[in-house]
Amino acid sequence: MAEPYCKSYYAATANTTAPFPRLEGSIDVDVAIIGGGFTGIATAVELAERGVRVAVLEANRIGWGASGRNGGQITGSLSGDKAMEKQFRRNLGSEAAEFVWNLRWRGQDIIRRRVGKYGIRCDLKHGHMQAAYRPSHITELEDMYRAACAHGMGDEVEMVYGADLHRYVGTGIYHAGLVNRRNMHVHSLNLCLGEADAARSLGAGIFIDTPVEKIIYGDRPELVTARGRVRADKVMIAGNGYHHFAPGKLSGMIFPATLGIVATEPLPEELAKSVLPQDFAVYDTRFVLDYYRLTADRRLLFGSGTNYKGTASSDIGAPMLPAIRKTFPQLADVKIEFAWEGQDGITINRIPQLGNVTPNVFYAQGYSGHGIATSHVIGEIMAAAITGNARDFDIFASAWHWRLPVGRYLGNRALALGMWYFQKMEALR
Ligand SMILES: Cc1cc2nc3c(=O)[nH]c(=O)nc-3n(C[C@H](O)[C@H](O)[C@H](O)COP(=O)(O)OP(=O)(O)OC[C@H]3O[C@@H](n4cnc5c(N)ncnc54)[C@H](O)[C@@H]3O)c2cc1C
């Protein structure tokens, strides 16, 4: 049964698009994609721009999953960057570090160009700060700052300390900050809807309310739905934390973590300025972090914590209000108007998983909390692979991944235990 959008700030302020249909009957395409989040939709845009006949089948609504529920922060953070550098050396040798560095910024370029090219209305804004939560975290920001300068980004980054932090964030809880003007923030559901509309304008079939029930593998795989079927030369699974396909190959590889997020009531202009004077997005340096930004109507959109057990919370806002008040005492009386949560696919080594179930059935998943920019890079990589240039795809596909030989329930509990350990270790730093 297809589900409506959750009651989020994003759903309440979504742009109206011409309705996307449900699949009725049988169609034949070059490429069929399961999942209408950023991974599926970004790949569809790339394929449609190359003239490929593509259809996306989404079980619920466009951006119904993590893509339409997230913090909206488009940053150069890559979960698993160190693990990637190490593993990618097998294919790339000494170029691995540069490849991973470039991955950090490819997504920003793709999104900026696409939003401009198709005129997508999604409140896209530049400006971000990563804030040191403990004095011992300052070094990692300074290392990142030096790396950015060495790569010619000196004009876009800045280290700030002490009272200077107040130019960007109205709190005294941080010890330093790395300002990055290449990073952006966005109304993510409107970005996803706008990209789906762009793909449609290029001839892609975008179908909602269409859960794929079964993949029939073969020379030309077939996707079976309640009211129709799609036959294709190639299929891509882009269901991330929400799908259960190919258990023989993919179970025990990815675990859905639940992330909660809230939006306050709109703040008066002066109060909003006291919180984020430059309208930049912020997240801190902890392993499980706080992240926040202002929306176009001046709400504070605030996310905190991750439930690695993957279970729903009974009161999403309860742990957020103390975190908001601790960060911004000036918001002591602020009310939360929206609280929602979503699931993101976490991989154990935090490297995104790209690969094949069979030669003509691909998958891409698992951005471990940092998926807006990454899913757009992966969309480019998947479209290239599907149309014959598998260079970058092969680099990801040859990465080794942990696989827990247990079901999701036990796997999520093992993951929660591992993350608890990392958090405890971090607290000692
Ligand atoms: C609360 C939260 C905050 C986050 N904040 C940030 C952030 O600030 N910055 C950042 O970079 N990342 C963030 N992320 C992560 C980011 O949102 C995700 O990594 C990214 O959106 C994943 O995109 P996706 O398309 O792979 O998956 P999803 O957006 O989850 O899409 C998967 C889609 O597949 C569909 N599907 C599943 N099974 C089927 C089926 N059988 N048939 C048809 N369709 C199916 C689902 O309905 C769903 O719509 C956050 C995530 C959450 C949950």
TrEMBL record:
Domain called FAD dependent oxidoreductase: residue spans: 30-384
Organism domain of life: Bacteria
InterPro entries: FAD-dep_OxRdtase, FAD/NAD-bd_sf
Keywords: Oxidoreductase
Annotated GO CC locations: cytoplasm
Statement: the UniProt record of this protein carries the keyword Disulfide bond: no
Any coiled-coil regions, as ranges: none
Molecular function terms from GO: oxidoreductase activity
Pfam families, A to Z: DAO
Protein's UniProt keywords contain Oxidoreductase: yes
Name by which UniProt lists this protein: FAD-dependent oxidoreductase
Source species: Aquamicrobium defluvii
